[in-house]
Q: What sequence folds into this?
């Protein structure tokens, strides 16, 4: 009973310290609603619990700002897009009160744009500051916010708010905005991402580059070990993280991208052991592909371009893809002859690397139906393969009784039995000469006939 009385006294004392209108409830009303006549009228255990819940409810009424500290929703938008938010308000915000769009930092409202009540246009109130526009529609009791040309730096927590009569910002609706970069690359391209950080993050704080996995954000690189690649079996020095403390910028570089690098990445900045900022990158890496449909027993030549300045000194390989994308090497340029045209022949396969123009040419001869499949032109170094071009071969069977001449990848094989013989060319020439002779004789006869008729006409006139 004594504890119940103390709880009541503590609650009354706290409410006396409350300096807000509590959504239309005065301080005295709150006090009256928590009053019991005397300690002898203290409630039972069930009523005491109800009283505690009632007290919490009154606290929320006393501090409406607490209701909007937790974001109502999360907006995820790509760079360059626009954000549109509508914030309804009720009797807690008068239409004459200023409305604002706040960037929440450290629990404080930093207004980006505010409305100004106008007696000339009472039905609408609009204001613009840079790329942010706010519009208050008192008729529908709604504040509309528009942010255009979003950038990664715009990520954060925002609130629609109104100014109380004590000139404090009270939130109406809070959202968490996540602006991400969308990057589209080709295989063997490079990627460079810069992540800026605020003064709250020190140069000695940890920065990391991680990729979304089954268990969350799987860290690949950190500034603790800036040149380590722990999650990949590709070529050395494929990824690097650098921290420029003077510019407060972390730069992540990924080279020799492959299709399997497609995914969602985060640049994570830590303050102590806790992450304070994330920049989301959505990366899509596409393959360069070619398709060929040569005939059985023929041959095919494939040309794979690459950057001569970057990869001219790297060995190249021709391999066939098998189970789980494992690629079996058929021929390589490891045995480097002199000159910039490195040509190697191994069985039915020939590979030639023109390092000056950046083109690898692969030729397969005596094709068989079982040669159909997926092949790679690939970089080959330290026992690892990086795909340059994915080539799909579909070998078509030849009908019985026909033979083929050599055929290139883009041309169709032509049966030798259908090739015109040299004698047929002579017969064609003789036939054409006879036709021309007959036409010449007919023309000559026509000319003589016209001359005879002309002379007869002249004699008659004489």
A:
């Amino acid at each position: 009973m004594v504890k119940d009385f103390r709880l009541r006294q503590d609650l009354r004392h706290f409410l006396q310290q409350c300096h807000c209108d509590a959504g239309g409830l005065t301080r005295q009303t709150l006090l009256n609603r928590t009053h019991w006549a005397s300690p002898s009228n203290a409630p039972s255990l069930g009523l005491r619990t109800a009283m505690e819940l009632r007290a919490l409810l009154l606290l929320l009424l006393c501090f409406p700002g607490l209701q909007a500290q937790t974001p109502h929703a999360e907006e995820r938008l790509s760079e360059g897009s626009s954000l549109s938010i509508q914030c309804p308000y009720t009797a807690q915000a008068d239409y004459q009160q200023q409305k604002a769009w706040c960037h929440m930092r450290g629990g404080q409202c930093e207004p980006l744009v505010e409305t100004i009540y106008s007696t000339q246009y009472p039905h609408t109130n609009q204001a613009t500051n840079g790329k942010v526009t706010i519009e208050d529609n008192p008729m529908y009791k709604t504040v509309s916010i528009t942010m255009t040309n979003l950038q990664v730096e715009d990520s954060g927590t925002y609130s629609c708010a109104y100014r109380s009569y004590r000139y404090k910002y009270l939130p109406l609706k809070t959202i968490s905005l996540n602006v991400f970069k969308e990057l589209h690359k080709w295989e063997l391209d490079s990627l460079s991402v810069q992540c800026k950080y605020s003064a709250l993050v020190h140069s000695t704080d940890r920065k990391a580059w991680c990729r979304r996995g089954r268990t969350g954000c799987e860290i690949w690189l950190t500034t603790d070990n800036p040149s380590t690649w722990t999650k990949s079996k590709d070529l050395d020095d494929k990824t690097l993280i650098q921290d420029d403390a003077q510019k407060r910028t972390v730069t992540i570089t990924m080279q020799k991208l492959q299709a399997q690098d497609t995914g969602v990445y985060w640049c994570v900045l830590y303050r102590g052991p806790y992450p304070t900022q994330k920049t989301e990158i959505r990366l899509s890496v596409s393959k360069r592909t070619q398709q060929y449909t040569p005939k059985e027993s023929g041959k095919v030549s494939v040309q794979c371009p690459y950057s001569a300045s970057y990869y001219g000194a790297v060995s190249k390989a021709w391999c066939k893809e098998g189970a789980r994308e494992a690629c079996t090497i058929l021929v390589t340029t490891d045995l480097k002859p002199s000159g910039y045209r490195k040509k190697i022949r191994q069985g039915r396969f020939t590979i030639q690397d023109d390092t000056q123009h950046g083109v690898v040419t692969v030729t397969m001869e005596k094709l068989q139906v079982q040669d159909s499949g997926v092949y790679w032109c690939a970089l080959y170094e330290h026992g690892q393969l990086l795909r340059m071009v994915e080539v799909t071969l579909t070998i078509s069977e030849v009908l019985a009784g026909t033979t083929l001449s050599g055929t290139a990848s883009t041309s169709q094989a032509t049966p030798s039995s259908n090739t015109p013989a040299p004698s047929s060319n002579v017969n064609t020439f003789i036939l054409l000469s006879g036709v021309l002779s007959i036409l010449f004789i007919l023309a000559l006869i026509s000319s003589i006939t016209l001359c005879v008729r002309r002379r007869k006409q002249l004699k008659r006139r004489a």
Residues 345 and 351 are 6 Å apart (CA to CA). The radius of gyration is 41 Å.
